[in-house]
Specification:
122 residues; mainly alpha; Purple Acid Phosphatase, chain A, domain 2; three-stranded parallel beta sheet; globular; metal-binding
């Protein structure tokens, strides 16, 4: 995805996240399922497999991603782009919790900063 569109996506996602509370309370009922995922660590194949097996996020197919989206794998940016796009479409049905790898120092140490610099030189 061109850097211009990534920047637009990031700005809009930031705006939406700033409006959300720091703590989100979720409840499930017998009629609604929720899929809880964690530790993608830049492995796009894992995210695609989750969506293949459980379906794409929607009002009827809710998700919680428990952080560690980035670092270690080669496709952290692609994972963020996909998750942020779904967050903008379904802000009440897709929830993103921050993990320890969503930290500046961890990003420097485990590769996300290098990935971003390599893919988006500007």
């Amino acid at each position: 995805l061109h850097a211009r569109y990534v920047l637009q996506l990031l700005c809009e996602t930031r705006r939406v996240l700033k409006e959300m509370p720091n703590i989100t309370y979720l409840s499930t009922s017998y009629s609604k399922d929720i899929t809880v995922c964690g530790d993608l660590h830049g492995n796009l194949d894992d995210l695609l497999l989750i969506f293949y097996k459980n379906g794409l996020p929607s009002e009827q197919n809710r998700y919680v991603f428990n952080g560690d989206f980035v670092d270690r794998g080669k496709n952290s940016m692609e994972i963020l782009i996909i998750l942020f796009a779904f967050l903008l479409i379904y802000p009440n049905d897709l929830h993103l919790n921050r993990g320890n790898h969503e930290d500046y120092v961890m990003n420097l140490r485990y590769g996300f900063t290098k990935e971003v610099s390599k893919k988006y030189k500007v």
